[in-house]
Amino acid sequence: MKEQNRTTGIAPYGGAEGGWGALKAVADAIRGQISVKQDVMALFKVNQPQGFDCPGCAWPDPQHASSFEFCENGAKAVSWEATSKRTTPEFFTAHTVTELWQRSALHLEGKGRLMHPMKYDAASDTYQPIAWETAFKEIGEHLRGYDDPDSVEFHTSGRASNEAAFLWQLFAREREYGTNNFPDCSNMCHEPTSVGLPESIGVGKGTVELEDFDHCDLVLCIGHNPGTNHPRMLGTLREVAKRGATIVAINPLRERGLERFTSPQSPIEMLSLSSTELASTYYKVRVGGDAERRHENPAVDASGGAEQRRTRSD
Q1: pLDDT per position as a tens digit, 125-139
Q2: Predicted TM-score (pTM) above 0.85
Q3: DSSP-assigned letters across all residues of 211-262
C-alpha cells in the first residue's frame, strides 16, 4: 500500500467534535501556562454580561449565557493572555533572530509575554531592550517622517481586546494621525463579502441574528469550518439538529465539526460517549471546478453524509 504523506501533529481521528478530547485540550492549555488558578477564574468571565469578549472568535453571545461560554480555542487564547510565563530580555540575548526564525509559532507563544520594548540589533542579530521613552520617541519620529499618512499601515490582531482595538483606531484615524489604513485580519474575511454580498443579496453584511437559528427550518453551511474557526457555533447547530431542522454542509474539506458533535455541556452525551449528528447531507465540491456541472449519485458514507463531486461539462 502506498504510504501517504502525514503532516506533523495531524493524525486520523474517528471521534466526534468536542467531548472529552476538547476538555483534555482545555486542561492541557491551562496547565501549560502555569497560572492555573488565574486562568480558570478568567474562563468563568469569558462571554459573560459582566465579563469580557473571548479573543478567539466573534461568535455572538446568547441572551441567557451558561457558565461555560467558551470553546477549546477560546480557552487557549485566554490562557495565553493570562499566562504567568514571561519572555525576558535575557531570552533574546541568548537566542539570535536567525535561530528564533527556525522555531514554530507554538514554541514561541509558549515562552510567554514580552516584558520590555525590544529593538533589533543587526550587529548581534538579536533583539535588545530599550526604554519605553526611547521606543515612543523613535516611533513618533518615524510617523512624523512620512509626507502622507495613508502611506502608513496600522496592523492589529484578532487576538487584541475590543478596548485595545478601540484605542488603536482612535489614535490612527482623523483625530490623531489622520489615516483609515487598517489592513488587519478582518480584511481577509470581510472585504470579499463586502463585494460579493451586495451583488447577490443587495446588502454588504449579514442579515440574520442569533435568535434566527431558533426558528429556521434549513441551515446551509457553505465553505466554513466552525469546528476549527468558531466552535461555539457547534452548540447552536446541535440545537438546530435536535429540534429536527435540516443542516446541509457544502465544503471541499470534510469538517468533523459539521458532521457530529458531542457537547461538553451535555452530561448524557459525555457519559454515554454519544454525539449529535449535524449535517444530514454533506456536499464536497471540487476546488476550481466548472460552475456548470452534472450531478452524480451521492456516495453515502458511514457518517450518514453524502459526497457530491463537480465534474467537467464539455
Answers
A1: 999 999 999 999 999
A2: no
A3: GGGGT-SEEEEES--HHHH-THHHHHHHHHHHTT-EEEEE-SS--HHHHEEE
